[in-house]
Specification:
Blueprint (H helix, E strand, L loop, with lengths): L3 H21 L4 E17 L2 E19 L2 E7 L4 H16 L32 H18 L3 E20 L4 E17 L6 E9 L8 H13 L10 E7 L1 H14 L2 H5 L20 E3 L22 E5 L2 E2 L6 H7 L13 E3 L6 H8 L2 E8 L9 E12 L2 E14 H6 L1 E4 L9 E2 L3 E9 L3
Parallel strand pairs: 7-12, 11-16
Antiparallel strand pairs: 1-2, 1-4, 2-3, 4-5, 5-6, 7-17, 8-9, 8-11, 9-10, 12-13, 13-14, 14-17, 15-17
Helix pairs in contact: 3-4
């Protein structure tokens, strides 16, 4: 993308020009987002190149407020006529909308002033040929590592750069830039009706933090082969250990239930739950927006509000909701600097590594895959297809699939017995494996 600092300055100047045009048209408030992204993605399968895609995108979004009326429009065209038309469209929409008492920019005194660097800019100098070679090597390493690997769903390499500006009529201008790179592989073990698929991937802001192509391929092969010859288990109530890459989905369900939109619509089983105990006393989740090389590190949210380190859950008690300024006003509260989402969550561990988590469970179900969307945020009812492994005496015995795990999220949260130290770092939600003491598992009748 060339000189990212120069491009950011150019976008910052453009944002100021657009804000001035909004003022000239009578807007009482306005905000502008400008972004540029570029990337390369390649996919291979069975030793052959399937796709090579180079991307370059740009977006300009303008939002204006006329009192309590709001209008938005966007464009990717930087020609003067297009920019003028975008501002005019936003203003025209605002003039024809109804008043909304909760609308408007975040309060000016909440704007971020301390702009930090998070070591998030690490361009990967890689061309399509080299990316293809890496993907092929990853897939081949997996296919060569186990004779039971009969087929492949392919391997992929991706790299991307993004820069962005958020500016508003409070005088706030925020600049962000980041890179993200990935390498992954999915393989198929067995043949015919006995086939099993699994994979592995690595993702990082800096390419030097990616796992090696060979290790990713071998791990994908091991995971696929380990699922061969699955058995059924009897329907019953058992402890369920969510592997770390699955455990973060439980945190995701919590976030959905405590998000402002769900709360002010009263479409959540956690309405009015702030200040109540939902988890065991030792359980904690902290938001950490200033992590070096964090996937969601930022000094400000999508409205320019200064982010801050803050507990979401402490001593098992829900401390707050996830609010933008709009949802906060709808609820009679103040924004939590979460317009656009959360900024790196850390779930505190109270147990050891993965092996010790298995040992602590003793007998039960290890879940390594979840299927379906059977989660009702309004009631908290949870029912999802799953696959994984049966555990006896703290040791994996055999793979299982074709099962359903069910419960209610509020009861599941309260029944969490342990969080492991085996943190999956491939997400902005950082958690180890999570052991839920008892859930209904539907297997053989």
């Amino acid at each position: 993308m060339g000189d990212s600092h120069a491009r950011l300055e150019s976008l910052a100047e453009l944002s100021q020009q657009l804000l001035e045009r909004c003022r000239e048209r009578g807007a009482t408030q306005a905000e502008v987002s400008c972004s540029e992204e570029s990337g390369l993605n390649v996919n291979v399968r069975m030793g052959e190149v399937e796709t090579v895609e180079s991307t370059r995108d740009r977006g300009i979004a303008v939002t204006v407020y006329f009192g309590k009326r709001k209008g938005s429009a966007s464009t990717a065209d930087l020609r003067e006529t297009s920019l003028d038309s975008t501002v005019e469209q936003a203003c025209a929409i605002a003039r024809h909308t109804e008043d909304d008492a909760a609308t408007g920019l975040a309060d000016p005194e909440l704007m971020a002033r301390d702009m930090r660097e998070f070591d998030s800019w690490h361009p990967w100098v890689i061309d399509a040929d080299r990316a293809i070679d890496l993907a092929l090597a990853c897939e081949q390493a997996g296919r060569d590592s186990d004779a039971r690997i009969e087929n492949s769903d392919g391997a992929s390499v991706g790299t991307g750069e993004s820069i962005g500006i958020y500016a508003n009529s409070h005088g706030f201008v925020g600049r962000e830039r980041s890179t993200q790179h990935s390498l992954g592989c999915a393989l198929i073990a067995g043949r015919g009706d006995a086939m099993q698929r699994d994979g592995w991937y690595s993702i990082a802001l800096s390419a030097d933090e990616l796992e090696s192509a060979a290790s990713i391929g071998r791990k994908a092969a091991q995971r696929a082969a380990s699922r061969l010859a699955p058995k059924q288990i009897a329907t019953g109530e058992y402890p369920v250990l969510f592997a770390s890459e699955m455990a973060r989905s439980l945190v995701g369900h919590l976030l959905s239930a405590v998000s402002g939109g769900a709360l002010y619509r009263r479409a959540s089983f956690l309405v009015d739950a702030a200040g109540t105990k939902l988890f065991p006393e030792w359980f904690a989740i902290d938001e950490r927006p200033f992590l070096p090389r964090g996937f969601r590190s930022s000094s400000f949210d999508a409205e320019g509000v200064a982010t801050r380190e803050s507990p979401l859950v402490q001593d098992g008690v829900l401390q707050r909701y996830i609010l933008s300024s709009y949802s906060a006003r709808k609820l009679g509260l103040q924004t939590t600097a979460n317009a656009g989402g959360v900024h790196n969550l850390q779930v505190a561990a109270n147990a050891g590594d993965f092996e010790s988590m298995l040992g602590g469970m003793g007998r039960g179900l290890l879940v390594t895959e979840l299927m379906g969307q059977g989660v009702n945020t309004v009631t908290g009812d949870y029912s999802r297809g799953a696959a994984g492994f049966w555990v006896e005496d703290g040791k994996i015995q055999y793979p299982v699939d074709g099962i359903t795990i069910a419960g209610n999220l509020k009861s599941m949260f309260a029944a969490i017995e342990a969080v492991g130290s085996d943190v999956d770092t491939r997400s902005h939600v950082r958690t180890g494996s999570i052991l839920v003491g008892r859930m209904t598992v539907a297997g053989e009748v």
